[in-house]
Specification:
- The chain has 2 domains: about 190 residues, Periplasmic binding protein-like II (D-Maltodextrin-Binding Protein, domain 2); about 190 residues, Periplasmic binding protein-like II (D-Maltodextrin-Binding Protein, domain 2).
- It is built from 20 helices and 11 strands.
- The strands form 2 sheets. Strands 1, 2, 3, 4, 5 and 11 form a 6-stranded mixed beta sheet that branches. The chain has a 5-stranded mixed beta sheet with strand order 8-7-9-6-10.
- Helix 3 links the parallel strand 2 and strand 3.
- Belongs to the bacterial solute-binding protein 1 family.
């Protein structure tokens, strides 16, 4: 299962100053040896340590995978070193990398992966992925979701363990209460899911006393909206150009206007006890941009039958690329047994490995081709194929953003100020972001 894209994870961003210090720590750790207790022994057996964050339920699933892997690889012992929360995970990992005690294999969040790749602490994977030992050939993954896990020269250092496109979940009951009779998914199927129609639906929801749409304040929201509206945040060289692109400026201003008048809501800022989940399952909002993990929330509330998903709207109604949230699985460059570490890494990311982790209540979308049935098998939501289509067309967080310590945090703060009416115009906010990106 993916914890990279749960709600708590997307709300948490490391403070810029801490991130800068962390980047220095990474650079130092790249020069130090590994004190990892794993590796091979005199009898030919190996131990692979690996680390991630997650809930007790998720960690239990991972232990189940470990048991299956060890049954299939009797010469390799696997030890999971979990961290309960995402907020503590990377600081702990940085300390381990500095002291040479980092695990052989570990997760990295999509807002931090660029820093780890740049620091030189990760094992190159391209040749291994196309070797006879691999269950995960390079061409089995959509290049768009590799993001900063792949460098400009084409070398791969990190691959998403699974992904989560932020689809627009919608509440049929709330739409009906607002007098909306058209079905968003049916409109999308006919390439008629236009921005104009979407905004009109939100206007009707607001007039009915309901929240139009709810979004988390992170790159997935900002840049999905920009891309879906035909704008450009970063050019191919990694330069932020959103402030010089009229389409982007207009799109961000429209989004901000809907935020400022309360039709759109920043989910992060909703009060405890009346948060986004509560509003959605009680039919208080029409749309909610989230991933596949939303299924569990709706099923637990006993209201799943009232909900479905649709891609983001576009000016002409046809599909456009939007962001795909991810966490990445990497191998420590200083692992004492690269062969054993890769054996675990490739099994974990393989079709079989992802099917094991994501079936029976899995909360994410496979990153590898061939495992799509885990999303479609239950027939829920009705248009579950949308998750796969968004994955295949989508893109990960921009490498230019995830590589700079603290940049995503600073951008989120600037955008939140705009959404709350405290940050001037869209043009002024995008100019501020351009300056932040240039300083990085």
């Amino acid at each position: 299962m993916s914890q990279s894209v749960t709600r708590s994870r997307t709300r948490i961003r490391t403070h810029g100053a801490v991130a800068v210090l962390a980047a220095g720590t990474l650079l130092l750790s790249a020069c130090s040896g590994s004190g990892n207790s794993g590796g091979g022994s005199s009898d030919g057996s190996s131990t692979v340590t690996w680390s991630t964050w997650g809930s007790p339920e998720e960690l239990e699933r991972f232990e189940g995978f470990n048991e299956q892997f060890m049954a299939d690889h009797e010469d390799i012992t696997v030890e999971l070193q979990p961290t309960a929360g995402y907020s503590d995970y990377h600081s702990k990992l940085l300390a381990q990398l500095t002291s040479g005690t980092a695990p052989d294999v570990f997760y990295v969040g999509d807002d931090r992966i660029g820093e780890f790749v740049d620091a030189g602490v990760l094992l190159p994977l391209s040749d291994l992925m196309d070797s006879d030992a691999s269950q995960t050939p390079v061409d089995a993954f959509n290049p768009g979701v590799l993001g900063a896990g792949q460098t400009e020269d084409g070398e791969i250092y990190a691959v998403p363990n699974d992904v989560n496109p932020d689809a627009l979940w919608y509440d049929k009951e709330a739409l009906a209460a607002a007098g909306i009779t058209e079905d968003p998914a049916e409109l999308a199927a006919n390439d008629e899911w236009t921005t104009e129609t979407f905004l009109e639906m939100n206007d009707k929801l607001a007039e009915a006393g309901l929240i139009g749409s709810m979004y988390w304040n992170y790159y997935g929201t900002h840049w999905s909206w920009v891309s879906s509206q035909g704008g450009t945040a970063y050019d191919e060289s990694g330069t932020f150009v959103g402030n010089t692109d009229a389409t982007t400026v207009d799109a961000v201003q429209t989004f901000a206007d809907y935020m400022q008048d309360g039709t759109f809501v920043v989910a992060d800022t909703m009060p405890e006890g009346a948060g986004a989940d509560s509003e959605f399952v009680t039919h208080g909002a029409g749309f909610f941009a989230q991933g596949r993990y939303t299924i569990g929330t709706l099923e637990e509330a006993g209201v799943a039958e009232s909900y479905d998903i649709v891609r983001w709207p576009t000016p002409d109604g046809t599909a456009a690329p939007t962001t795909v949230a991810a966490s990445y699985l990497v191998i420590n460059a200083d692992t004492p047994d690269p062969d054993a570490a890769f054996a675990f890494w490739t099994a974990y990311l393989s079709q079989e490995g992802q099917e094991f982790r994501l079936s029976e209540g899995g909360n994410a979308v496979p990153s590898i081709e061939g495992a799509d049935d885990v999303v479609l098998a239950d027939g829920y939501p009705e248009h579950a194929q949308t998750f796969l289509d968004m994955r295949d067309m989508g893109f990960a967080n921009y490498a230019a953003e995830s590589t700079v310590p603290g940049l995503s945090t600073d951008i989120n703060e600037a955008m939140l100020n705009l959404y709350q009416g405290a940050g001037g115009t869209a043009q002024e906010t995008l100019d501020q972001i351009a300056a932040l990106a240039a300083d990085g």
